[in-house]
Amino acid sequence: MRILLVEDDELIGCGIEAGLRQAGFTVDWTRDGHDAQLALTTTEYALVVLDLGLPGLSGMTLLKWLRQAGKDLPVLVLTAKGTVVDRVSGLEAGADDYMGKPFDLTELVARCRALLRRAQGRSVELIRYRDLTVNPVAQTVELGELRVPLTSREWAVLIQLLTNQGIPQSRSRLEESLYGWQEEIESNAIEVHVSNLRKKLGAQLIKTVRGIGYVVEKP
Q: Is 162:127 a contact under the CB 8 Å cutoff?
């Protein structure tokens, strides 16, 4: 899943980016509100981690624009201001959760996961699909009682398909979930990853939707 990080502090931004990547997310990082607005206009994200104290376009203004534009993706707000008034203002502007600085990185990652679960209509972390058990925290996949090793790219494709059951995912949409701005996209990468997943997890797991892409059907 692809996350947009909007944070102008280099040290804090580096730490958050590293923590989210280690947790298995694809991360794009902008340091300015205007750049973030452009990114949100051109790219589909699963979640935004947003600092309010930004140069250019403020985080609060960006948040209000995001909601007025009808974009309902989860937003986790970060701010050095921790007063009740600030928290209420952020939540009423459309934030889904709020963390004051300084914060614990493991808690931030856990809050991101919780927001994504809520957006996907899940109440628990484990994803169960037929005889598959997927643990996004441990980044493990079990087929029955057998642990199946996946590459990071195969994992990302599987998560994108499982969290969008019944909704065909185009090749470009899958590429967006896998690759950040600085990463080169190989021409046939999605086809290769899907082929490998079928070999490892069963040929019937991922269906091809002619002219559209791939889908994991709802049970």
A: yes
Judge contact between 44 and 2, C-beta under 8 A. yes
Residues 6+ apart with CB under 8 A from 127: 133, 134, 135, 136, 159, 162, 163
42: which DSSP letter? H
Q: How far lies 188's CA from each of 11, 66, 76, 158, 174, in Å?
A: 36, 33, 34, 17, 12
CA dist 209 and 112 (Å) reads 31
Predicted TM-score (pTM) of the model is 0.82
**What are the tens digits of pLDDT across the range 8-46?**
999 999 999 999 999 989 999 999 999 999 999 999 899
**Nearest 5°: phi and psi at 214?**
-135, 155
Task: Check residue 24 and give left, alpha or beta (phi > 0: left; psi -120 to 50: alpha).
Answer: left
E strands in the chain: 2-6, 26-30, 47-51, 75-79, 97-100, 127-129, 132-135, 140-143, 146-147, 169-170, 207-209, 213-215
CA–CA dist 129, 46 (Å, integer):
21
pLDDT at site 109? 95
Handedness of CA 85, 52, 70, 213 (dihedral sign): negative
Longest CA pairwise span in the chain (Å): 54
Return the structure tokens found at 119. Answer: 């957006």
**Residue 216 backbone phi and psi in degrees, to 5:** -100, 115
Whether the Cβ atoms of residue 116 and residue 74 lie closer than 8 Å to each other? yes
Distance CA 179, CA 27 (A): 9
